[in-house]
Amino acid sequence: MSTVFKRLSIGGKAAVFQAVKTYRPGTSTASSPAIAKMTLGEALASSKTKVTFLETETLKGLPVNKSLTTKTIDPYLASYIQDFNAAYFAK
User: Fold this and answer.
1) Among candidate residues 21, 28, 54, the one with its CA nearest the CA of residue 40
2) Whole-structure pTM over 0.70, yes or no?
3) Residues 17-30 pLDDT 10s
4) Whole-angstrom Cα distance, residue 64 to residue 1?
5) Residue 8: what are its φ and ψ, rounded to 5°?
6) CB of 31 within 8 A of CB of 81?
7) Distance, CA of 47 to CA of 84 (rounded, Å)
8) What does pLDDT average to over the chain?
9) Can you tell me the distance from the alpha carbon of 71 to that of 2, in angstroms, rounded to the nearest whole number?
10) Does residue 83 contact residue 34 with C-beta atoms inside 8 Å?
11) In sequence order, what DSSP letters do the residues of 27-62 get, joined into one string?
């Protein structure tokens, strides 16, 4: 299921959209959160990426990417954090 959005004309730099209609009606797979609460062992066992270590030991430490900025937020990361927050910190 996909949704058609219409941009609302609001002053300023903020882009605000309104859901207008359903583009592909049908059963929605996004109705339940993508993240379910589980222990660390269960999460590592069910992960898509094979995790072989949880820390790295180096003499000089790990390199830091100094070009990263917080001016823009990745929308995929934002939706993941929103699901994570709902799964672990919901009241």
Assistant:
1) 54
2) no
3) 888 887 666 655 55
4) 40
5) -90, 140
6) no
7) 15
8) 77
9) 28
10) yes
11) --STTS-S-----HHHHHHT-SSPP--S----SS--
